[in-house]
Amino acid sequence: MGSFALSEMLLRSPGAVKEDANVEKVTFQSGSLQLAGSLHRPVNAQRPVPGLMVCHGFGGNSGGDGYRILAQDLAEAGYVVLRFDFRGCGASGGEPGRVIFEEEVEDLKVAVAFLAAQPGVDAGRIAAIGASMGGTVAICGAAADTRIRACVASGAVADGERFCRWQHRDDAAWERFLARLEEARQYRKATGRSRIMNRFEIVFIPEHMRQGLPPGSCMEFPAETAISMLGFKAEKVVGQIAPRPLLLLHPEGDLVVPKAESIHLAANAGAPCELHILAGNNHFAFSEPEVLQIIRRWLARYLPVAAGKRERYS
To pair with 11 at 20 to 30 A between CA atoms, which of 69, 114, 259, 266? Predict the structure, then answer.
């Protein structure tokens, strides 16, 4: 079991953010698909610095204010930061809304290579930072790819099936959900086509919180997306990240993903692992000032910008 620290703090909502001048629009290939992103560079960097990848949440995109705030804040702290759209999302190629989480892990691996090849990036010091299911993808990517030297996940899902069961808390609703997916499997087998599901059939978000979704988020998905989510189990692989460091963040009363998911991740992680339970219930608290402060301090400890201060793990 990984050791973890608990902390509580008040959260505030970020305001609108203006794009900095040091941001470059970029594209790179993942198989036959072109992925789109934005590269944030620190000003006046004198030597290669660590690179950070920002992974957006389920069916979202990297253009939301929260991801832009995070990327710019970390660039100002001296890091090169890549925020990008997974296939089928945002400005990236692929079938719109076709979110298969194992494929997103492959996109993340390609992003590692792209970021490592950028001028001014220390290729030996790259970290993945993800929110919600993007945090789950970051964990699975870090478990599979040792080029990712550190990982941060906020509001992540440890076990997709358990999470979906929590979302469909009524037994009858759960049975209807499973029946819907089985019918979709049979339909695809018979016709080669996909049944389409609404976003909130797969991951329900209370109506008053939906403004936290990035503009342009996917609202429809093939049923294969939900099937993929059921089989995505980060808690089974999170232990493979150690001895590389892992930071987990989760709001106490998260209304979208229960905090128990991050607790399960921490229980299955190796050291060093930190779990911070945050006050409030805002699932979209990734770029809150207190959260940014936690991430900056943690990165300064495990992936510092300063030359000569390298991580102390293998």
Answer: 266
Report the CATH number at residue 276: 3.40.50.1820
| In contact, 60 and 213? CB cutoff 8 Å | yes
Answer yes or no: is 310 within a domain: no
Q: How many domains does the chain have?
A: 1
CB 134 within 8 A of CB 230: no
Residue 210, in any domain of the structure: no
Distance from C-alpha of 277 to C-alpha of 263, rounded to nearest angstrom: 9
Backbone angles phi and psi of 121, in degrees to 5: -105, 130
How do residues 164-209 score in pLDDT, each as one tens digit?
A: 999 999 999 999 999 999 999 999 999 999 999 999 999 999 999 9
Residue spans of beta strands (DSSP E) within the chain: 23-30, 33-40, 49-55, 80-84, 121-131, 148-154, 196-198, 220-222, 246-251, 273-278
- Prediction pTM value: 0.91
> Cα(30)–Cα(158) distance, rounded to whole angstroms?
25
3-state secondary structure of 34: strand
